[in-house]
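Handout for the seminar on molecular recognition.
Each group receives one record of this type.
Step one: identify the two inputs.
Step two: read the structure output and locate the region that could contact zinc ion.
Step three: write two sentences on what you found, then compare them with the reference statements printed after the record.
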Amino acid sequence: MGLADDLRKPPSRPNSCWAARLRSELVGEELEAFEEAVKLVVANKGDNYRPSKGGATQAWLARVLTDNGHPIGYRGVSTHFKGQCACGII
Ligand SMILES: [Zn+2]
């Protein structure tokens, strides 16, 4: 174990971003609502953590998902919406 071992084990799932994982887990109405929420966040240009900003922010999305059993940190949400995650599909 340790750094050398970890460096020799790249992740086996390249598309293991939280959004890709959710899209593979959610079904039906929940999946539809998730996709709608993603569009709202993009349309809202909610790319910064601004709790005072109303509407669909990334912070809002992270909180709603976490409160409903899908714990996701704001940083992970932000990485996805900046296109810096592995999934590449916003
Ligand atoms: Zn992603």
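Reference statements: The first helix runs from residue 3 to 7. The chain has a mean pLDDT of 84.
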